[in-house]
Amino acid sequence: MMRDLFEKIYKDKGPLGKWASLAEGYFVFPKLEGQISNRMKFQGKDVITWSINDYLGLANHPEVRKVDAEAANDFGSAYPMGARMMSGHTSLHEQLQNELAEFVSKESTYLLNFGYQGIMSTIDALVAKDDIIVYDVDSHACIIDGVRLHMGKRFTYKHNDIESLEKNLERATKMAEQTGGGILVISEGVFGMRGEQGKLKEIAALKDKFNFRFLVDDAHGFGTLGKTGAGAGEEQGVQDEIDVYFATFAKSMASTGAFIAADKEIIDYLKYNLRSQMFAKSLQMQLVKGALKRLDMIRTMPELKENLWKIVNALQSGLRERGFDLGTTQSCVTPVYLKGSIPEAMALVKDLRENYGIFCSIVVYPVIPKGLILLRLIPTSMHTLVDVDETLKAFSVIRERLEKGVYKRLSASVAAAMGE
Ligand SMILES: Cc1ncc(COP(=O)(O)O)c(C=O)c1O
Prior knowledge:
Blueprint: H1 7-11, H2 20-23, E1 32-33, E2 39-42, E3 45-49, H3 62-75, H4 91-103, E4 108-112, H5 115-126, E5 132-136, H6 141-148, E6 154-157, H7 162-179, E7 183-188, H8 200-205, E8 213-217, H9 232-235, E9 244-248, E10 258-262, H10 264-271, H11 275-278, H12 285-300, H13 302-321, E11 334-339, H14 342-356, E12 358-359, E13 361-363, E14 372-377, H15 385-403, H16 406-410, H17 412-418
Parallel strand pairs: 3-12, 5-6, 5-7, 7-8, 8-9
Antiparallel strand pairs: 1-2, 2-3, 4-10, 9-10, 11-14, 13-14
Helix pairs in contact: 3-12, 4-12, 5-6, 13-15, 14-15
The structure holds pyridoxal-5'-phosphate.
């Protein structure tokens, strides 16, 4: 019997949507107000914001704001109109590409309007039906969606597990010998949830044994890792072994847009084959001029990254000294793992925000195993040691309250309503 298309939607709101009535406006879709900074307002209260990916503190930097405003004044927010290929190309787009290429030590780059669609199209354009994709099982949704577009075979390997990758490369190689195709391996430079760096060096070393090309999504590494800030490839000394490098402007660059970098011949090909760029309006000038300014500041103001790491080190070592479990982070991403149910996690986060003025993201099952609470903190160059100190003190108190069962009692009615 046929059904109304919407019937399933009326019945099942999806794994996150089902929490909407309990969580919306507070735990999800919260409204942070005020200028982007280490301290903002949430529901009228001052909070230390540990959930904004403005790693280098550029989002609200006066010099950046000035260039953004001037560009808006000079060009409006429409210019240029049309897709790059048709009528949306400018010398400033080219200049930004050239400067990005030099910064990440690649021959060439191409701008992407959004990282998400851009990397999907990159994966789509790099592989044909005969090719095989081998990718980390914990990859970001945009990589998974890119792989979904692929008409041929794909294998996941266990997260950051080189033995598992080798096994899958053996399988993929056998298959490729039959199909006559090639192999694309995909990893992230930094895994954004847990903060581990992808094992880029070990993966690159497998090129001695296997024939594959290597794509790295370095959304969290760009600007934060490596001597010059060129990312996880620079940090691990394998930038040359990365065949296609990707980074977004959504984090260290504090903007919108992204880019891919590779040998000139590969970028020339992608330029004519990235469907999400060929059939979409060009990145507007305000973003292009804004990105040129931000890149210039990343290159010339090493103190931004130094201050970021001063805060990262103070926060992470302070938490570790107090016995908190930060898992396996090797980056600025600071995950704090606690034990508790989803209702307890909600009560705990509410306590942190209302009584200690600390705003961080909360991650629970099914993103992490049941019974674990992950509080995710993103330090930035804007934070101060006072912010760190207040946060460390608050974390010690909330852990004690969690262990004493305070949040269990506070959340008993929510737990009952949720059937937990
Ligand atoms: C690892 C990773 N890749 C890609 C993206 C998508 O980039 P964008 O926000 O530019 O669409 C993000 C989020 O910003 C990300 O965290």
